[in-house]
């Protein structure tokens, strides 16, 4: 592998600021150079827009702000100030907006946030059926189309059209794309895509992985020791602590499949059919939602899509190895019981919204299940669109990584 020569030597990198007019010569003192690691720490705390401007100051600043250690530190700091990502379908385009995510409130309160647009330029054919984000990078794809699956960074505007998945055509039963999910391994700092293909016949599902690195963008087969079935859409997949979770069947049992992104090994957690599936019906594909509950896998149980719910039922994994779940039931106030469920923040607040294609002013309700407090946040920034569809992703972190 050929190594590119660094534009600046790594040893004793520093930067010196001089001001010839602020003080007279008799009192002016040279503060000395700023160590590069201190400079990186200072810059990593700035907003993303400031970083974009500073890249244009000089080649040296551009080099500093593209260093891997700066990108990693900026991501770490960004994770402490999560945002809300809004993906807006309007006027035949796919637009990305974000706003600060409100922190936990101790009492009922109302506020207003302005969603600012990421000025990225994506092609009009960009798929807009299913979305997922991991560490600031996004996977966009359309369940009904095999073309145009895209991996992108909303804040840099970069996107990568994924290579076509290889399928076996050696039998009469042609394989079809079933699901595709995004996960990351924080140890190796790698992003990986898991693709599952199946056929209408009772043939085993095949699994392929693509590592999102410049020299590894090829699908490769991985082995799975379980015969999972019923793997349809993957709009409800979620990655928690480098494990990608999604729902499936194993024989006659409903399960959550666990794919370890680092080791590329499969496992599963049984879902208690009497307690969970029994209450929502055998075909639970529309009755459960997976999300992150304070670092643990959680299922939100839905009883009837059209019913106004007066409570929310959560099933939280307590011991994955022994398939142990705990049930949590909370009452819901009338204010939010008729709203659309969005998800839960890392701080444990449920989030509800006005309906995504409602032309009226858009808002989010943050309801704390334990304190029983609700914060309504009016979201401004979408008023120019008479017709729009808004998709919401919580706990979004800005990542300066280039694809």
Shape: globular
- In this structure, how is the largest beta sheet organized? 5 strands, mixed
Radius of gyration, Cα only, in angstroms? 24 Å
Mean pLDDT: 80
Instruction: Walk across the major sheet and give the strand order.
Output: 5-27-26-25-24
| Broad CATH class of the largest domain | Mainly Beta
Tell me the span between the first and last alpha carbons. Answer: 19 Å
Number of strands: 28
Helix content: 10-25%
* CATH fold name of the largest domain: Neuraminidase
Strand content: 35-45%
User: What would you say the CATH architecture of the largest domain is?
Assistant: 6 Propeller
Q: How many domain modules?
A: 2
> What structural category do the secondary elements indicate?
mainly beta
Pfam family, one: F-box
Organism: Microthlaspi erraticum
InterPro entries: F-box-assoc_dom_typ3, F-box-assoc_interact_dom, F-box-like_dom_sf, F-box_dom
Protein name: F-box domain-containing protein
Structure description:
The protein is mainly β. It has 2 domains: 14-74, no CATH class; 79-396, Neuraminidase (6 Propeller). It has helices spanning 36-43, 48-54, 59-64, 68-78, 273-280, 334-337; strands at 14-15, 34-35, 83-90, 93-100, 109-114, 116-117, 130-134, 137-141, 150-153, 158-161, 176-185, 190-198, 206-211, 220-222, 228-229, 238-240, 243-250, 253-260, 265-270, 288-293, 296-301, 311-319, 324-331, 340-344, 349-353, 362-368, 373-380, 389-396. Residues 34-74 form the F-box domain. InterPro entries: F-box-assoc_dom_typ3, F-box-assoc_interact_dom, F-box-like_dom_sf, F-box_dom. It comes from Microthlaspi erraticum.
